[in-house]
């Protein structure tokens, strides 16, 4: 509802009697009325008083109402302008509307109550338009801030990833993480634990966006804590994949984070040339290639953070002298063209044959994906004996 005591009306008309009638009538309703006898005087008054609404005649000396409309359309489009004219030419009406008139009243006005109604309607519409503009501006500012925050978060998350193309002992590590959004729920890491042990893991947090990305930070902190505990001789949980998954499982549930993680965690023992690992629901299963032979390392346990006090299985394999081990997050399955899961798995298994050529091309081509991804994609590879030219 229009607050008339705060509403300033500028009436521009070369007939003094008309201006006086409008002023007496509108002042009686509580409006503050300013008068101008022509378009030029009206624009001068407008610049000083900044009225809430303008009532303008079309045919006036010095400057016509059409010129006033054109000026206000360019300089103050948010101010409602109502044409009140003695001409009922349809061409004048059309021209006035095209020049920005909000409404059009033909003189003589049979009832000044109509004028009051038109003013109220125009002021309310202008107020609503202004509120929408403020809302849109606030929305755009909030969007820009959120985008900035997400970009900063992404930069931080990417910095938490290990350096790519890293060698630890005889083992070469590579990783790739492609988020479907600004932030990723996929995460990989590999690190030198010490005393001949190397840790590696791939995680895929349920859901997308900020909540899932925060869990990857939680996971990184969890792992770093256990690495430090080992260095301080406080705990060797970092060396036991099953124990580590069990502790992480309970922490996730106790924290009430409402997210679960599919997680493969492995420990390479360089002293015994073995890989000890547990797999909490990570799929597709890791694939180990040596020469032309491939082996899928299956999982037997559900994701971490789903079942209270869940126990996890642990597996040990002897590592070949020359091999390639690849871990994929399930986002990789979304972009493969095969229809059935078994065919997608066959495709991935075949990548490690033929002296790694197909795998290398597939790995590199992932970086050329320009369209938005349906899911986060992560790949982690461990290799030994690359100089031999075979997987």
Structural write-up:
Helix content is 40%, strand content 24%. The chain is elongated and about 105 Å long. The protein has ten helices and 16 strands. Helix 2 (39-49) runs parallel beside helix 3. The longest helix is centred in the middle third of the chain and has 49 residues, at 112-160. Residues 387-391 have low confidence and may be disordered. By secondary structure, the protein is α+β, with helices and mostly antiparallel strands. It has helices spanning 16-28, 39-49, 65-75, 90-98, 112-160, 209-231, 241-255, 331-335, 341-350, 357-366, and strands spanning 8-12, 32-36, 53-56, 81-85, 103-106, 166-168, 171-178, 186-194, 197-205, 261-269, 274-280, 287-290, 293-296, 315-318, 323-328, 377-384. It has two domains: 4-133, Rossmann fold (3-Layer(aba) Sandwich), CATH 3.40.50; 161-388, 4-Layer Sandwich (Phosphatase 2c, domain 1), CATH 3.60.40.10. The protein has a six-stranded antiparallel sheet, with no helix packed on it. Strands 2-1-3-4-5 form a five-stranded parallel sheet, with helices on both faces.
